[in-house]
Design brief:
This protein is 75% helix and 0% strand. The chain is mainly alpha-helical. The protein has one domain (15-85).
Length: 91
Amino acid sequence: MENQHEKISGYRALDQVEIDLMNEAKALEAERLAFQKRVMLHLAEQEGSSPRERERQQEAFAHRWAQIGKTDIETGFMALVRSIAQPQPKH
């Protein structure tokens, strides 16, 4: 749909540089989230190798920290995208 930004409150048209930055941010976020997923898969493999490994992971809160990492990646890229889009609240 053409001119979608005009139908969404607080959004504006982006120029080509901003569109390119948004697309780059989305691609980089996907790469970082794929890495986080690989970390989670490693933890699952490691955890299943022995009860001792599972206990060590639990004491270190390994899964929790990996999930915090995912949240922080998402939050960081959301902030960058917002800085590019520069939405304005309607008063």
